[in-house]
Give the backbone structure.
Amino acid sequence: MEAHDSSIALIIPHRDDRKNLNHLLQSIKSWTKMANEIIIVDSSQDSESIQYDFVEFCSSKKIKLIHHQSDKLIYPGHARNIGIDISNSNLIAFLDVKTTPTDDWLDKSFELMKDESIDGVWGKTIYKCSQNKQKIIRAATYGKLPIKTLPGSLIKRDCFLKTGLFIQSVRAGEDGDWFSRADLHQLNFIDHNKVGLLTYELSKDVTYKNVLLKWYRNNSFASSLPYLKPHKDIYFYLVSIVAVLIAYNWNNLFAAWDLDSMLYIPNITKITAGFFFTVYYITRSFLFPFKKGLKAKDLLPIKHFQIFLLSFLLDLVKIAAFFSAAFIKFFQTAKIKSHYLVKK
């Protein structure tokens, strides 16, 4: 990578979270490598200037600091697009105000990008918590292992010419949509543990209700994106329901309730329902948490049951969001067709 290709723009979307924004900006002072540009795209209801000491820090380090204030609510994807458009750098880095990176995250990613064949480095975020309720939520959602995230990523500017920018009209899911387009264009991204980690601290005030509402909101937006197909959870539920219905009618249809018939199966409905429930329970309470880095001590003696209950509710919310979005899309399409036929 030649010198003129090494400039970095750091883009940070922000809305009404001044405390976390200030904490993130203060943490930048101890980084082992600095960005050439820091662009804060702000759609807060009450505009505030950036803390003076951080402005002075950027000036002393010759970092171009841009605080772009939007006069309306914009979603994270839209904010990132604005940042990309404003920037003049050849490498684009992303952070969110609730993610705290290690001091060497940008340094490590930049070193990897010196290989000209590399198009980008994915961010890696680990979710931390201390209270029991937070741990149940983490076990049912993110898990303990670092996961690939857009925050913490460093990407060549040219990649956006190939894939396009982020979808601006959705509150959530725009990052996953861009991930899929990067894969579609066979961009060469690095995703391994040499990347500096980001930390996301789950709020101590978080409630199960808030998690369910957020899950519904995010899945409602994401379900409209082209990369997201009907989730396999939905297929599992549908197969389970169909199987139980078949079992319920089995002895009537195939054995005519003849107890001596070879096709007669005692308690077949209970057996079928119990089988699917057991598979689902083991998967949600043990297999998925193990896959996400949890240990037996994190699940026993009764936490696995709490994790199962929350996972079950999250699945129901996800399915409700999917079908709600599908119905809305159906009626909107029907309305458009009806309007077109009337005009015709």
User: Anything to note?
Assistant: Residues 3-205 form a domain with the Spore Coat Polysaccharide Biosynthesis Protein SpsA; Chain A fold (CATH 3.90.550.10). The beta strands are 8-14, 37-42, 64-69, 91-94, 99-101, 120-128, 147-156, 189-190, 197-201. The longest helix spans residues 303-343. Residues 13 and 41 are 5 Å apart (CA to CA).
